[in-house]
Amino acid sequence: MLGVDEAPNMVQAKALVKRFGGFEAVRGIDVEVRRGEAFGFLGPNGAGKSSTMRMIACVSPRSDGDLRVLGMDPDVEGPRIRARLGVVPQQDNLDTELTVRQNLQVYARYFGLSRARARSKADELLEFAQLSDRADAEVDPLSGGMKRRLTIARSLVNEPELLLLDEPTTGLDPQARHLLWDRLFRLKAQGVTLIVTTHYMDEAEQLCDRLVVMDAGRIVAEGSPAELIARYSTREVLELRFPPGQEVPAETFADLAERVEALPDRVLLYTAAGESALEQVHARGWRPLSSLVRRSTLEDVFLRLTGRTLVD
Ligand SMILES: Nc1ncnc2c1ncn2[C@@H]1O[C@H](COP(=O)(O)OP(=O)(O)O)[C@@H](O)[C@H]1O
Ligand SMILES: [Mg+2]
């Protein structure tokens, strides 16, 4: 039998199900997260990402299927698993009655650190979260990015080997997101395994070594960002915008691309060579309001798999 520390995977789920009454939020998913990787759940709101994360975090029991976290069964060894996890829930749940530093110290005391050790741990994590100059400030007036960094700092108090982050950057401005991504890269470089949920394809592309695309409780694709794009999309995409009211059916450009998608506000031509497709469009007398040639993204993968965009 394998000892806990030789467990091959940080998370191993087979046919994992979460039901709320008669509703299946997670509909039999298989997931394998390896030590040291950054693993992502990418999907729109309602896909079942948080429900999955809460089962992995051992705060919500599974309804069916099998789940092992750090080689253990959450139903049996929840507390032992939780002691080795860091959890950043979708909604910050900081204690607004306490200062920034106190939030970390109180949490450290929960984990059994001595008063002195809790204080030095808090200082170290404030430094890591770039919040040292806010140590004695109240939590409420902090920006969204600072609150998120404090929640992440708090999740690191017990030096977890597996960190779960549920939508770490939702609602943050680009600068705050990049700052946060930088901190997550550092953790990964230190050997912490990361599991991230997001509905931002750029976040998934930036952070994740491997990811699953989730939709309506199911996994619809799995791989590295590059693999998924290679498998489900083309190298480039030509985006055409036409004046409002001008009907341009997808078939119009069917022979210019591997695939054409007509969205309410754009027509997308999936092709290896966007610029030459654009020349053809012009040569045929079409005059779009604007045109853009870009590389394929995970958003294109999701659209291909579900017929919908990731963020509505
Ligand atoms: N406690 C709950 N009771 C009933 N339905 C829930 C509960 N939590 C989540 N759901 C439903 O399960 C589905 C998946 O939710 P969730 O896991 O939060 O998705 P995501 O995190 O991807 O947005 C949604 O339809 C949501 O309304
Ligand atoms: Mg969620």
UniProtKB/TrEMBL annotation:
Gene3D superfamilies: P-loop containing nucleotide triphosphate hydrolases. The keyword Nucleotide-binding applies. This is Lipooligosaccharide transport system ATP-binding protein. Keywords: Antibiotic resistance, ATP-binding, Cell membrane, Membrane, Nucleotide-binding, Translocase, Transport. It is found in: Cell membrane. The lineage of its organism: Bacteria, Bacillati, Actinomycetota, Actinomycetes, Pseudonocardiales. Residues 11-241 form the ABC transporter domain. Its main location: membrane. One of its GO terms (molecular function) is ATP hydrolysis activity. One of its GO terms (biological process) is response to antibiotic. It is a peripheral membrane protein. Pfam families: ABC_tran (PF00005). Belongs to the ABC transporter superfamily. GO terms for cellular component: plasma membrane.
